[in-house]
Amino acid sequence: MSYQINQLIKLLVLPLLFATGSLSAQTSKPEAKPSRAVVQYLGRFQHLIKKYALYTDSINWAQLRREVTEKSQGLVTIEDCKPILDHILRTLRNAGDKCQAGFIFNVSSVYLCRCKNVLCL
């Protein structure tokens, strides 16, 4: 009887251990820092938005910087930055800048295409 209980416990406990181990692996933050080119590119892009956008005063820049830093973990190339640029522009649109966000998005797309390995700003 105790042998059957031990087997049953093993059958129930082992999958739980594997599930919690894989869950913690999925929720852990990536350790890789973004490349220097990515950091410079995103910094310059944020600087341009902050300098030229109409609704720049409506954006919480400290929070946006934290979000960009978090989302850029592990990025290596400038081409990888597109989702982060979209996040920055979405934040600008949510602040009320409907027209300029579209213009900057088009400029950023051209800018992103021209910047293969060199920071163009």
Brief write-up:
The chain is mainly α.
Number of domains: 2
In whole angstroms, how far apart are the ends? 74 Å
The biggest beta sheet reads: none
Total strand segments: 0
What ranges have pLDDT less than 50 throughout 5 or more consecutive residues?
A: 23-28, 110-121
Query: What helical percentage do the residues reach?
Result: 55-70%
Secondary-structure-based class equals mainly alpha
Number of helices: 5
Categorize the overall geometry. elongated
Overall mean pLDDT score?
A: 74
Strand content: under 5%
- SSE succession: HHHHH
Task: State Rg.
Answer: 22 Å
3D structure, described in words:
The protein has helices at residues 2-27, 36-52, 61-71, 82-94, 98-114. Residues 23-28 and 110-121 have low confidence and may be disordered. The protein folds into 2 domains: 1-30; 36-114, no CATH class. Helices cover 69% and strands 0% of the residues. It is built from 5 helices and no strands.
Topology readout:
Layout: H1 2-27, H2 36-52, H3 61-71, H4 82-94, H5 98-114
Helix pairs in contact: 2-3, 2-4, 4-5
Task: Give the key terms.
121 residues; mainly alpha; 5 helices; 69% helix; elongated; disordered C terminus
